[in-house]
Amino acid sequence: MIDLTKKAGFGLDQRHRAEQRFQWAGKLAIATSLLFLLVMVGSIVTDASGVLRQTQIAVDLDLGPENVNPSNPQAASYGRIVKSSLRDMFPEVTRRKDKKRLYNLVSPEGSFEIAAMVTDNPALLGSVQTLWLTASDDLDLFLRGKVDISLPPKQRRISDAEITWIKILEDGGQLRRVANWGFLSSGDSREPEIAGILSALIGSAFSLAVCFALSFPIGIGAAIYLEEFAPANRISDLIEVNINNLAAVPSIVFGLLGLSVFLGVMGLPRSSPLVGGMVLALMTLPTIIIAARAALRSVPPSFKEAALALGASPVQAVFHHVFPVAMPGMLTGAIVGMAQALGETAPLLMIGMVAFIVDIPDSVLEPATALPVQIFLWADSPERAFTEKTAAAIIVLLIFLICMNLIAILLRRKLEQRF
Amino acid sequence: MVDPIISARGVDIFYDTKQALFDVDLDILPNKVTALIGPSGCGKSTFLRAINRMNDLIPSCRVSGSLTIDGQDIYDPAVDVVALRAQVGMVFQKPNPFPKSIFENVAYGLKIHKLSPSKSELQDRVEWSLQNAGLWNEVSDRLDQPGNSLSGGQQQRLCIARAIAVQPKVILMDEPCSALDPIATAVVEDLIDSLRKEYTIVIVTHSMQQAARISQRTAFFHLGTLVEFGDTKTIFTTPKDERTQNYITGRIG
């Protein structure tokens, strides 16, 4: 009888074992990478969770005419009013050093907040008002238990006296935690409790828009010419080698080029998303060209032949039949390039997008910063509260990236459905 | 004797230094089906592609000698290759409809050559082409469907409809049935026979039965030379050359 079982020989045992080994190795590799991903995302999300809410402190402010001139409320010294209110709340504090600590409970930006509230609602003027002001980052961290009070007072940011005041405020219902929309709607600040991501987000969006507007048409055009029309000779070989090499050039080199040409020679505005986008476009071009050429090459030559045999001119054959079929692949290449550009810091440092920008840019010509640069800046800041901001900014960057990819996928699917 | 529509005199074709065709003299008569047969690599496809200058796509390809259509040299620098290909259509070995709708496939040639100024005229011409390609009854209710949703045989007839839509004088066919099953082949062969009234057809085929069935004239190529050329009946019944005899009886090739 013919043996059809595993015991039939042919080295079957060994072959099956090899197969099992390989499959397990593969599963292990996938599990490991998933674990790393989970740990990474988990730690970022945990770090960033503190940014979701912020602490506010209720302060009774005397906005009477002796403190604020009703005809010109912007000129009033709200900082002084806040300080005197705090002194009234804790009259026992008399030493200069302690007073300074007391003032630190409220964010230094508090005076701007009052000015903004008064502008919005002039009815507040003329009497004593209880307003909620943003508390300092140290108070916020302490309330969330992020300050280790077992440490000796000299080694922590918050003293025993401050802890007493905070306890009193808390018991008096003068502290509250609210959703921190400011993080998404304001620009950078030296004070972590006020610092927001919007200026960097807009800066990144502007830079990428410029980058896409430049690199996509130029890259696709170059790829179509090189792949479909350029004669195959030594010059086109040289160009091909150079494009491949450019894709591997460190991005900071493109930043240097931008610094010397765009800023130095052409005199374009420093730190602007326009220049940032142009530098990123230079960096992205080789990626887009290489991907687009691969996409063009993957179109069956029979389409082009059929069109040419019908009497289409070469340009018609390419643009009517090759280009539409290659478009989804080109788009994939472009999105890979754009994702690289989004995460790029080094070339932006060279052209000054690392500057401390508080204002939200209105156009591509205004100074701005970008998300990865903002992350770098915050990670570099000494205040502990910036750790959370850094993690939150990373999440914003990741969400931006996911949105970009999503748009690309939807666009590609739409293009592919046309047969 | 009818004047030939295409005539080749001393045609040599080279790929770089390798010569693929040697001194071919051949007259193709109008409204006849001329079959080019011979073993693989004999140069029959090279000759076919020289007629509408599809060889231009291969940079290393060079043609010498005289190849004329209606008395004009195809390789004259004054010839516009787009105008030539509008007169000499082509159907390929593998059905290659565009990745567009059936309607768009047929309408494409009409659109690029601006042959149908109005929309209704365009629709009429597309219908006419599909009817003449024997495909109208099968696709009239789904012209907006993609061309590659059809079966292989239907796709090839769509390609023929696409080629005849611009009403060329000559249609070149490069093994049009080699990717089709026998039933689809029979349909396409009937179509070729009916197209003969309007067009001159040059067809490359590997099937000798097909050549015998559909052609009036047959040319046998071997190793780059035209061995024998004449009426199909004569070639298949009383070949003069021993190589032809061996090929059609299946001893070589």
Quick synopsis:
The complex is a heterodimer of chains A (419) and B (253). Chain A has helices at 12-48, 78-89, 96-103, 110-120, 137-143, 160-171, 182-185, 198-229, 234-246, 251-265, 273-297, 301-309, 314-342, 346-350, 371-379, 385-416; strands at residues 53-62, 128-134, 175-179.
List the helices and strands and how they pair.
The complex is a heterodimer of chains A (419) and B (253).
Chain A: H1 12-48, E1 53-62, H2 78-89, H3 96-103, H4 110-120, E2 128-134, H5 137-143, H6 160-171, E3 175-179, H7 182-185, H8 198-229, H9 234-246, H10 251-265, H11 273-297, H12 301-309, H13 314-342, H14 346-350, H15 371-379, H16 385-416
Helix pairs in contact in A: 1-16, 8-11, 8-13, 8-15, 10-11, 11-13, 12-13, 13-16, 15-16
Chain B: E1 6-15, E2 18-28, E3 33-37, H1 44-51, E4 61-69, E5 72-73, H2 81-87, E6 88-91, H3 102-112, H4 119-132, H5 136-139, H6 152-165, E7 170-174, H7 182-195, E8 200-204, H8 208-214, E9 217-222, E10 225-231, H9 232-237, H10 242-248
Parallel strand pairs in B: 3-8, 3-9, 6-7, 7-8
Antiparallel strand pairs in B: 1-2, 1-4, 4-5, 9-10
Helix pairs in contact in B: 3-4, 3-6, 4-6, 6-7
